[in-house]
TrEMBL record:
InterPro entries: Peptidase_S1 (IPR050430), Peptidase_S1_PA (IPR009003), Peptidase_S1_PA_chymotrypsin (IPR043504), Peptidase_S1A (IPR001314), Trypsin_dom (IPR001254), TRYPSIN_HIS (IPR018114), TRYPSIN_SER (IPR033116). The keyword Secreted applies. It is found in: Secreted, Extracellular space. This is Peptidase S1 domain-containing protein. SUPFAM superfamilies: Trypsin-like serine proteases (SSF50494). Pfam families: Trypsin. Keywords: Disulfide bond, Hydrolase, Protease, Secreted, Serine protease, Signal, Zymogen. GO terms for biological process: proteolysis. The lineage of its organism: Eukaryota, Metazoa, Ecdysozoa, Arthropoda, Hexapoda. PANTHER family: AT20289P-RELATED, POLYSERASE-RELATED. Residues 1-19 form the signal peptide. The gene is Dwil\GK19331. Belongs to the peptidase S1 family.
Length: 263
């Protein structure tokens, strides 16, 4: 029950941001700003980052460009969308203008994806047109190995800058540095989640810093490789509640096979 509540509240679609909450209203990081606790960045620094939006231009999730026509994102971002309703903005620091806006030809998400446990929270989009690499648009490599505990990683997105009363999204891309925790450590007694962290997940933590609502599907990057996909968390930047990501190294085979099947 606890688990279900956490997932529901931490992964509400962007339309419902701020509608509910589970952590204390006196969260000290509430007003700290950016992704949560991060700072403004540019697309040139993270040229693999894309924004998934609906036809009306509302950003609902992030994603990562991995080849000329494939975006990797979270399964929970795609669940309730038809391809015809999704647009992908690439090559812009601002989610609402600039760069290029591309339509989607096909989508797929993992057969093992579970809405209750969020295991296998990975999906891909095939773009309706090929995009060339530029200074602001680049393909990122999929990690083959999950980085060791303590490896610094950067998470980026246009998600909310706090968990409470953050109704609007920042227009400028935000970044924050967090540190890798493998799923066992993340589910250990050193943190607060316990056995709800599974082997298809990897965590990243730093006090007062985290991804948040609207960052889902977006990239967690270490050593220029895509290591994680923003998936869930209990609140955002809550003490001893790391950000949880789909583990790209573990899900890599599925990603590669699914890309092939969509060709
Ligand atoms: N599920 C959220 C989304 O759909 C992302 C939550 C990430 N939360 C966190 N504390 N790292 O945008």
């Amino acid at each position: 029950m606890h688990r279900l509540l956490a997932l529901l509240l931490s992964c509400l679609a962007i339309g419902q941001i701020g509608a509910a909450s589970v952590s204390s209203p006196f969260d000290p990081f509430e007003h700290e700003g950016r992704i949560v606790g991060g700072e403004e960045t540019t697309i040139a620094a993270h040229p693999y980052q894309v924004s998934l939006q609906n036809k009306r231009g509302s950003h609902f999730c992030g994603g990562s460009l991995v080849s000329k026509n494939i975006v990797v994102t979270a399964a929970h971002c795609l669940q309730s969308y038809k391809v015809s309703n999704i647009r992908v903005r690439l090559g812009s620091t601002l989610y609402n203008e600039g760069g290029i806006l591309v339509e989607v030809e096909a989508l797929a998400y993992h057969e093992g994806y579970s809405t209750s446990t969020l295991e296998y929270d990975v999906g891909i989009l095939k773009l309706a047109q090929d995009v060339e690499e530029t200074d602001d648009i680049r393909y990122i490599k999929l990690a083959e190995v999950t980085p060791a505990n303590g490896t610094p990683a950067v998470v980026t997105g246009w998600g909310t800058k706090c968990y409470f009363w953050c109704m609007s999204l920042p227009k400028t891309l935000q970044e924050v540095i967090v540190y890798i925790l493998d799923w066992r450590t993340c589910g250990s007694e050193d943190y607060k989640y316990g056995p709800i962290v599974y082997d298809t997940m990897v965590c990243a933590y730093e006090k007062g810093k985290d991804a948040c609502q609207g960052d889902s599907g977006g990239p967690l990057v270490a050593d220029d490789e895509l290591v994680g996909i923003v998936s869930w968390g209990y609140g955002c930047a809550s003490s001893l509640m790391p950000g949880v990501y789909a583990d790209v190294a573990t899900l890599r085979e599925w990603i590669l096979n699914t890309i092939k099947s969509l060709e």
